[in-house]
Amino acid sequence: MKYIGLTIGLTLAVVASTVAAEGVVRVMVDDQYVSEYTTIQEAIDNCPDGGTVEIEPGTYGIEWSLVFPNRSITVTGIDPDNPEVVATTIIQGPFYGGYVCMFVNGEKHDWTLQGLTITEGFESQGGGIYCANASPLIRHCVIKGNGSYGAGAGLFCADAKASPTLENCVFSDNMAYGYGGAIFAFYGSPVIRNSLIVGNYAHTGGAFAFLNATEPVIENCTIVDNIATDLASAVYCEGETFLTIENTVFWGNLTEYGAQTDTVIHATGQTEGVSAWIDFCCIQGGQDMITVDENGLRTINMGQGTIFEDPQFVLDGDFSSGLFMAGDYHLQDSSPCINAGNPDFAAYEDEVDLDGEARVAGGLIDIGVDEVPMPIEADVVFVPRRVYVNLPGKYIYAYIRLEHEQYTIHEIDKKTIVLNDTIKPKHVYTLDNTLLVQFKRDDLLKKKAIQSKALLQLTISGQMNDGAAWSGLGEIQLEKFYWKKWFHGWKWKWFR
Asked: pTM of the full predicted structure?
């Protein structure tokens, strides 16, 4: 992802219901600033239907929960696509307890919350975000460090009409003493897409708990390193819940020692039916970690395309020190999750992974929250195309061209160019729309077994200035030069 600079606003005094450690809050209508406020709630209360409340980076401690009005509005940070800005635009829950944000009785309204960090909410049911008879869009938010005596420390869906859509969010370090460390849904049907659910904690359902939830969906997510003290380290389904899970990684989730059952996904209920349908997922422990109550009537269907191999994260989370250290949950290039998702998956318009990179990058969608970008294709021609290994020669040249709508060869980082992943160039020259890259011939030949005749497939690769990868494939024919054969041919040609 490309990061841009963030702008820190002015330090403000403690005013009304919101304490702003840094930043200002503005109301926008049709992309024009119309007013400025010192508290978030004041801006929300004065924002017209269809307007936007924009919050500059800063830490905003609130005395009372933020309540959305009886009209459609958007509350946003200044750059929802920039994780550095999101991480520094923080709304802290009330000091004496309460939700951070409340969406109530908004069935007829389009509410959007985006580009913010929601933290330190605490309530008996829920903590960070509370939804009742409302289905807001929550995107590019970090919901972390919230707590609940009961359920759904990160997000609590209170009824059948509470069905928010969550896109490109991170739920981390949320703790519920009851059910669903990150999210709890009671009859509601939340949709969670392209999100990372990591390091959450609950008695039952370390990440999620669904009670009679009609049609919740978990899609293109990575659910890792969550903990349950009793049952279902990742997902708990009860009653007549029917959950759909697709293109999602479950890895590193734990139940504590002495837990009722060591399981990742568990279902229970006394009405016959299917609690969850799982397709094209990566699940640690396989089928043995997906369980139902022995005395219940519920089932969990494992559909097609599910794998049980290590997803090969760049860095796994670590519990060894007694404190959880989150990992780097990007996929390595060798991950079995790459191009292993649902072949019929169709991305919605402008759908991206958690890094803001397009879904789908390769032939198929990747399993999990990370879509590994395919390298930009380069046209490569090697000169000479025929190399006689027993004749002297110092260099081999590669001519590189790019035909790409976004990049040109002038944006290639020359320091990253490499041949067959190991051989660095001696020189790189820029010629109009072509790069000319010079390699020492001996660097190539000493890494190849010299045969009398061999066709070498060579890959030259590197990165653009913004980190995007590129590569190109070319060929060189290796041969030995036979003087006797050449001399006889030459003599026949000129002296016959």
From this structure: 0.81
